[in-house]
Each structure stands twice: as structure tokens, then as C-alpha cells.
UniProtKB/TrEMBL annotation:
Organism: Streptomyces thinghirensis
Family: Belongs to the bacterial solute-binding protein 1 family.
InterPro entries listed in its UniProt record: Bact_solute-bd_prot1, SBP, SBP_1_CS
Entry protein name: Sugar ABC transporter substrate-binding protein
Keyword match Kinase: no
Signal peptide bounds: 1-24
Keywords, in A-Z order: Signal, Transport
Organism lineage: Bacteria, Bacillati, Actinomycetota, Actinomycetes, Kitasatosporales
């Protein structure tokens, strides 16, 4: 395993976490010692006032924070952008290790939350009444904030997957919108033959896309039980994914550009990248970053691994959590609940966020929203249906941040050499298990 990758994880502060195990390294008390915090306690804290430091990069929270301060004049929300995902996680873990400068609230993506829950570095929100919100969220996000019997964050948004496709390009080449992944491969061949500069999508190795497609295919690669972990990328779902995606790689049907790069945005704008299988949070990025494609793009359900199925998966999404060393817990929880299940949800939707709350997902106003960018299509209907069809039995590793950081060192080789995708997954599995063993996890073989 590359030395730079090991240094990355040590920089994230997980060495102590994993080597000593959850009970030895955690900064908080055992869940059983938590005392229930009632609504009266939270209202008293709001009346008294104080400050809450929130670390988050999600832009719609700016208006939510302003609205919260207006509603509760004695509360000051200090919204800090400490970096996006890995940059913030590094800063957060450094603050936790130093026991200094820890925020009261932190945005933590679903795939990363498990490591903080395992070490008790985030607070179990059951004591604050979070359990009552169980029925308020779509299954994927709610399952992602739970660990064992605990609830370690409230879902802020969700990323049920859909297929964004360039209708103008599809119409030009008389390509039908694919409903299965086999049809997707056939569409890729037809498109690239008609226009060698055009590709069905871009991919040079993306851990998030790979795990989302494995999830949809019914693969269950990660087995997690506390500090006992297992990984197996050889089940039927994984085989479906590797067999199909290998065809796209072998036949050079994937544009070799990195996502979110200038070339990627250019390809989406000029039609040389014809589809994007990604989360429902993507529309705002099309509007702001792919202006030339306005009116050309549409949204369809994610292609299926089995004809006639309707299974989806999640891609991205974040929670708001309370670091255990943070202060003003009652105020912090009040803000998180306001932002993620209260009045703040509608504010965030109006500013382009995609909700995790079923009430909003199923509302007539939400589902009937027309998207001018997508030719007036009511795209939220597609997204909401996708959210309902996400299997809830998916698990991430408690060190998924690290595992994802070595994806391109292992699976990525399949995109640039003769290594098969299945072998790349096997290498990723071995490297991830080796790291887990080095850090004190019990490996389930």
C-alpha cells in the first residue's frame, strides 16, 4: 500500500481510533450513560441563547443560519467552511485530537460518518429525541446515520441516483434512452460509432460511482459488526457490475477525463459526454456549471441490472452531526433539527438542495416543480421514485474515507492498463483489509 495513502489516514487521525478500538479511543461516554434531553431543556437553551459553531461547506445553510438567528435572536450561528469533505475531515480530526477548536456541529457525508460513530467522536442523538424522526426520512439516508442502536446525525440531503442524458444528442443519433445496463452498453457503442468524439459518459475510476452501482446491483461487499469487518467483491451483484463496466472499458467507450475538471464540464456542455449516472443533487451543478447544455438535458430512471426491476441506490449526501467535544449541545441539536427536519428544509429546497425528508419528497409542490434547464421536465418525480427504491441493507466500512483514497491505486489500474476490473476490486479488497488489520480491526474471512 502506498506510503502517501498511509500518511493520509494518519493525517485524518484514525490511527489511534482503529488500533485501540472503539471503546478505548472514543472521546465520549458510553451511550448507556447518556441522559435524555427533553424539549423543555432545548427550549430553555434557546431562550437563554449562546453561540453555535457549524462547520459545513453546503451553501444553502447560509440562509438557514440567518433564518434561525432571526427566529431565536439570542442564538448566534457561526457558519465556517473548513474545507470540502476530506479537507474538513482532516481539520476536524486534528481538532478532536488536540481537544481544541472542535465545532459544535459538523457536516459529515454518509460514507464517512461510520468512523466517527465507531469512535464515539460524534454524539448519539437518541438522547435528544432523534428517534422520533425515524419515519421522517427516506430509507437510504436514515439507514446511513444509524450505527448499531445509535443515531449519529440527522440526514441533511440525499442522492438517489438517476440517469441524466443529453436528449439532443440521443435524438440526433436516434438512440433510445436505456432502461437496462445492457442497453446502456449498446447505446454507448452506437453513439461512439456515429461520433468518435462522443462518449456515453466519462469515468477514469470513481469510488463513489463504483460503490453506488454495486449497491444497486445487490452486492453486499462490506460486512461490519463493530470492529469486525469483512470485504467480498465476488458476489453476484459485483460480477454483474464488473462484467458490464469491463465492456465499456475494453471498448474505450468511456471518455477519459476526471469528473469536475474543466474538460468534464466542457464535455457535458458540448454533448461529447452524453449521460451522467449520478445523485439527485446534480441539477444545481448543471445550471451553474453547464450553461451551454440548458434545454438539451433530461432525467430518466437509472438503468437496471435486471429488465423490469426498479432498484436504485444513493450517490453522495451528508448529515449534520454533533462532535462529542463540541459545546452547547442543546443549541446545536436545535439547529440541526431545524435545518434538517424543520423549517430549514424548505429554505434549502428553494435554494437548490435535494431533501431527505419524505414529506417534502412526496409533496405535490416538490414533485410538480418544473426545471427550465431540463426543458420544463418535472424531474423531481424521477428523483422521488428513485429515493423510494433504494435498498436499505448497504453498509460502508468504518474507514471508508481511507478505502476510497486508495481506489485509484487499485481499481483505477483497470482504466489505464490490462488489469481487469474484477482484479482491481480484488486488489482494493486486499489493500483495504490489510489496512484494517494493521489498525486493529478483526478481519472476518
Amino acid at each position: 500500500m502506498p506510503k502517501h495513502s498511509r500518511r493520509l489516514l494518519r493525517g485524518l487521525g484514525l490511527l489511534c481510533v482503529l488500533a485501540l478500538g472503539a471503546t478505548a479511543c472514543g472521546s465520549g461516554d458510553d451511550d448507556s450513560d447518556q441522559k435524555a434531553v427533553g424539549a423543555a431543556d432545548i427550549q430553555a437553551a434557546l431562550k437563554k441563547g449562546g453561540s453555535v459553531t457549524v462547520w459545513a461547506w453546503e451553501p444553502t445553510l447560509k440562509q438557514v443560519a440567518a433564518d434561525f438567528e432571526k427566529k431565536y435572536p439570542k442564538v448566534d450561528i457561526d457558519l465556517v467552511n473548513a474545507g470540502t469533505n476530506n479537507d474538513q475531515y482532516k481539520a476536524l480530526q486534528n481538532a478532536i485530537s488536540a481537544k481544541k477548536g472542535v465545532p459544535d456541529v459538523a457536516q459529515i457525508e454518509y460514507y464517512a460518518l461510520g468512523q466517527y460513530a465507531l469512535t464515539k467522536d460524534v454524539t448519539d442523538l437518541k438522547a435528544y429525541g432523534a428517534g422520533k424522526l425515524a419515519g421522517s426520512y427516506s430509507p437510504g439516508p436514515w439507514n446511513s446515520v444509524k450505527s448499531g442502536d445509535g443515531i449519529y446525525g440527522l440526514p441533511m440531503d440525499s442522492g438517489p441516483m438517476a440517469l441524466f442524458y443529453n436528449k439532443k444528442v440521443f435524438d440526433k443519433h436516434k438512440i433510445a434512452v436505456p432502461t437496462t445496463w445492457d442497453e446502456y452498453v449498446a447505446a454507448a457503442r452506437k453513439l461512439h460509432k456515429a461520433d468518435p468524439k462522443a462518449y456515453i459518459t466519462s469515468d477514469v475510476g470513481d469510488a463513489g460511482l463504483a460503490t453506488s452501482l454495486l449497491w444497486q446491483a445487490g452486492s453486499h461487499p462490506y460486512k461490519v459488526d463493530g470492529t469486525k469487518v469483512g470485504i467480498d467483491f465476488t458476489d453476484a451483484g459485483a460480477k454483474q457490475y464488473t462484467d458490464t463496466w469491463q465492456k465499456l472499458i475494453d471498448e474505450k467507450l468511456l471518455m477519459p477525463v476526471v469528473g469536475w475538471s474543466d474538460d468534464w464540464y466542457k464535455g457535458l456542455g458540448d454533448g461529447t459526454i452524453a449521460t451522467l449516472p449520478i445523485g439527485a443533487w446534480m441539477p444545481a451543478n448543471f445550471v451553474s456549471g453547464v450553461k451551454d447544455g440548458s434545454g438539451d438535458w433530461r432525467v430518466a430512471p437509472l438503468p437496471q441490472w435486471t429488465e423490469g426491476a426498479d432498484t436504485s441506490s444513493e450517490n453522495g449526501g451528508s448529515s449534520l452531526a454533533l462532535p462529542e467535544l463540541g459545546k452547547n449541545k442543546e443549541l446545536a441539536y436545535a439547529f440541526v433539527e431545524y435545518a434538517n427536519s424543520g423549517e430549514g428544509v424548505q429554505t434549502r429546497i428553494e435554494n437548490g438542495a435535494f431533501p431527505a425528508t419524505t414529506k417534502d419528497l412526496n409533496s405535490e409542490a416538490f414533485q410538480n416543480t418544473e426545471f427550465p434547464y431540463f426543458g420544463g421536465q418535472k424531474a423531481n418525480k424521477v428523483f422521488a421514485e428513485s429515493a423510494e427504491n433504494v435498498p436499505t441493507d448497504w453498509k460502508y466500512l468504518p474507514y471508508q474515507v481511507y478505502a476510497n483514497s486508495i481506489f485509484n491505486d487499485t481499481v483505477g489500474k483497470a482504466y489505464v492498463s490490462g488489469t481487469k476490473l474484477s482484479q482491481g476490486l480484488a486488489d482494493w479488497q486486499e489493500a483495504s483489509l490489510q489496512y484494517g488489520s494493521e489498525q486493529g480491526f478483526t478481519i472476518d474471512k
